[in-house]
Structure formats: C-alpha cells, structure tokens
Amino acid sequence: MSTAILTGQPVPGSSIEGDLRSLGFEVRTAADTADAETLLAQVPGDQRVAVVDARFVGHLHALRLGLTDPRFPLAAVPGAVTAQPAGRQALTRAMARENSAGGGNGGTVVIDSLADRVVTALDADGADVHRPELGSLVATVPGDPQARNEARQAVASVDDEAIRLKSAVKSRDGFFTTFFISPYSRYIARWCARRGLTPNQVTTASLITALIAAACAATGTRGGFVAAGVLLIASFVLDCTDGQLARYSLQYSTLGAWLDATFDRAKEYAYYAGLALGAARGGDDVWALALGAMILQTCRHVVDFSFNEANHDATANTSPTAALSDKLDSVGWTVWVRRMIVLPIGERWAMIAVLTAVTTPRITFYALLVGCAFAASYTTAGRVLRSLTRKARRTDRAAAALADLADSGALAQGVAKALRKPARRLPGFAVPAIALLGGAAVVATALFTDFGSPWPIVAAAGYVLTSGLAVARPLKGALDWLVPPFFRAAEYCTVLALAAGAGVNGVLPAAFGLVAAVAYHHYDTVYRIRGNAGAPPVWLTRTIGGHEGRTLLVTVLAALLTAAQFKVALTALAVAVALLVLVESIRFWVSAGAPAVHDEGEPA
C-alpha cells in the first residue's frame, strides 16, 4: 500500500490525482503544511508515502521513476518526493522542520513547492535522496498559467512510452544482445507487464526452457541437438526479457537479482551436462570437457567479481591502462569488438546453440574452451595491468569482501591466525604468488601421479598451509584480488584431475555434480555481497569445509578408496554439499529483508 499527499492549490484540468492512482497510490489532499504533516503521521510506518505538489505537470513515467522505484529509501523529482519505510524518519523530520519554519526557507529565496522544500531540507540533513535521470521527460511545477501551458506542450511533444521502452534495455550490453535480441525482447517485456507477469516468473520460465533444452541435448540425436539449440536461444530471449521487464515496470528486488544471476549459471551448466549425456549416448565421453568448461567459466566470473569488489570503493582509483581503455571506447567500432571478444553471455550462448545444432558436443566444447580461455586471458591481463599501474588504496570493506570470496574454512583460518605476524612482513606481490603456487602444486600432483597415490594428500596439506598464509593479513595489495580465483581454480581442477585419473565410468559426472554444488555456494556468496546482505554464515562455510578442507578431503578419499568407491564418495559429497548450501541459501533469500537491487553490470 502507498499513500500520496497532494499539497498546494489544485489546478483545473490537472491529471495528477489520476496519475498517482494509476501508479498505485491512495491520494489524500492537504490544505497546508501543518495538514500535510498531520496526514504524514497518519500513514502507517510500513507503507511508502509521497508528498506531491498538486500543480505538478509532467510525464507519467517521470512520476513512476521518481515515486515507485523500490531500490531507494528516498527519491524525488521536481514537485514530488517519496520515502519508503527506511526513509520515513528522515522525511518526517524534514516535514516537521518545514512546518515549524512556517513554509519559508531559512530567510533565503522561498521555494513555493512544499515537496521541493522538503527535498532541500533532506539534503541539508545529509540524507541520500535519489534523483532519477529524466532525460527528455518533463517534471515541473509551473508558477503561472503561461508556464503551465508551455510545460503541457512539452509533455505532449515527447512520447514517454517510447522512452520507457528504450530505457528498459541495459545501457551496456553485448553485440548479439543489443542487435539481435533487445530490438524485440523489449516488446515482450511490455506484453508481460500489461498482463501482470513479474520478472521472477519470466526468469523461472527461462530456466524451465533451458532445462528442456538440456534434456533435448541429452537425447543424443540430431533432432534433439537442433531443438536444444533453438530452445537455448529462446531461453536467452526470456533471460533478457526478465531484466527489461524489471526496468520497464520498476519491479526490482534482491531476490529477483539473485534468481536472475544464479539461474543463468544453472541454465548454462545444466546445458553442459545435457551435452555430455547426449555425447555419451553416441559413444563419446566428453564429461571432462564439460567439467573443464564449467571450471573455466566459473573462474572467469570469480576474476570479475574479485576485481570489481577490490576496486568498488578504492580511492585514487585511476591508471594509464584505464585511461587507454576509455580512449578506445570513444572510437565506436572498438567498443563492440572489445565486448564481443570477452565472449559475454549472449555471444557465448549463441555460439553454443549454433554449434550444438550443426556439429557435435565435442566440437562445441572445444570451441567453448578455446573462446573462454582467450577471453579469460584478455580480461585478466587487462585487469592485472590496471592493478599494477594504478595507485589505489583499498578499503577495509573491499578486504572483507575478498576474504569472504576466498571461502576459507576452519583449517585455513587456523593457519592464518597462527601466521598473522610473519604474514605482515611479506612483500605485496607474495600473497597472490603463495596462493598460486600452493594451488598449482596440489593440481599438478593430482594430475601427474597415479590414482591412489598418497602424494596428493601431501600436496593438499601444503595447500592448507599456503591458503592460510595467503589470507593471514587483509587482502589490500594491488593483486590480492587474484587470491579467490586461484583458490577456485585449485579446488575445482584438483577434483577434475583426480576424477579423470580414476578411470571409472561415472566418476566424472559425480565430480561435475560436486563442482556444480560448490560453485553454487561461491556464486551465492557473490550475490549476497552484491546485495549488501553479507556473506553466508560462518557455520555453513565451516560445515562444508572451506575450499582447502574440501580439497584435502577429496585427496584423502582418492588415496584410501578404490576408483568405484571414490565415485560413490564423490556423489555422496556432492549431494551433501548441495543440500546444505541450497537449503540455507533458499531460506536466506526468501526471508532476507535486503534492499532491492538489480544487476546492471557487465554481461556475464
């Protein structure tokens, strides 16, 4: 429920009251400032409230942007201000000040509109008032009949529905999405909005479509592969539609952002599994390639997340490399080339869909691995250069986010506590180097020793020590954002190497399931941090072992069990981890009171 308090003298022929009702507001009229304050106090504290000047002239979408966006506790456009429950106290204080001041503005130039005076008071109090970018949309409080006529003519000359549709599309998106999907998916989003569908419902439809595509691929027939490719593109169209629907109708939520992001990963990795099952029906075992593709893609994402979190609020955050990148972006065609070569989700899914339809799963995975490896090398090299050439000072918040992304369990945390003093004397480059060397050692040992050898256990024990040392001090160094990706690569690749070395049917699918379950936990951590909801609880991280504990456990299982027993153990471990992280994650996201967000970052 939302309430709008109309203030000021009503204007004949004004549509403001009807516009507010169309946006879901119950409208109450205030005779003066004191009356407005009284009405404000009568609105229940768990409701959104708006103060709007009765003389407001503007586009309906300008009002929608200013008064209905759930992401901001306080928001305003000229002639209107709104507060969600989190911003009600600040709005009440500002209104009381205006009432006690008798409608003036501290003896300076008097602002005639009560809503605008309240916004000025909020600014003076240091409140964070969101002011949406209106562009050519009109929002004003005319002071005389001539100004009112001119404002109405300006409203009539601009099609706010066209602007609303255009703004539903991400300002930064990939080439394939921009030119082959968004020109029509925005109209699908409008169709969904007019029928009352929510972004979460469209997101779920996209997931179901992708799972059907994976099932078609699992048939192993040419017809199944063609259908899988078509359905994967259809799933991507729906995936674009859900975000455009959220922007079109301003239906943002933390849960929606989490569903959109995690379902993207679930869809893609389920499709990999479907391709591997389909290939197996034809006598070709590509599970190692499927698992390798999932590992590479997940590590790419962790690089993105870690780099962005490390530099989210860093000071002096500039570099010659970043300046060069900005210059390249000023040359039109280079923008699209650079967006395409990083193989974002649109280009990646289009490539997978086409190759699935016309080639084999093995060729599809080879192309995917080569493309993602090149993209990962390009983006990581650029970020390393930026980190080395900028003089940024990273905050405690960034260090805490990187520590959460590291996913250290009880073993690494115990080592970190013991080695805290010597860790402070390490040079800046040593921390990521230690994480890299420790991880490389355990992966190489698992890869180049026979299955059942005890040597991977020794390497994993060393990995526990290096992992603890790497996180023994705050991760504020120039390249410390590489620590979480190195940990992810070490754990996932160790599982892959040991499963591949077992040489028993079913081990690699079990390893795929384990890595998928752990990757879900890592993605869940990312989106909790992005939504300012904090990391998963410590008990969960410790219960599932942390990255170093799981790595050590898998090497112990491989050394003590036969290959057939190892398959069963990996399956049981995958099920246990999946149940724990899914139950806790779903419980959290369904019940969390985190603020509404929507991911407007780079295409994943």
Percent of residues in beta strands? under 5%
Order of strands across the main sheet: 2-1-3-6-5
- Mean model confidence by pLDDT: 92
Which regions contain 5 or more consecutive residues with pLDDT less than 50? 104-110
Question: Which structural class do the helices and strands define?
Answer: mainly alpha
Total count of strands: 7
The global form is globular
Main beta sheet strand tally, sense and closure: 5 strands, mixed
By DSSP (H or I, 4+ residues per run), the number of helices equals 26
Task: Specify Rg, calculated over alpha carbons.
Answer: 28 Å
Our measurement of the CA-to-CA distance between the termini, rounded to an integer number of angstroms, reads 36 Å
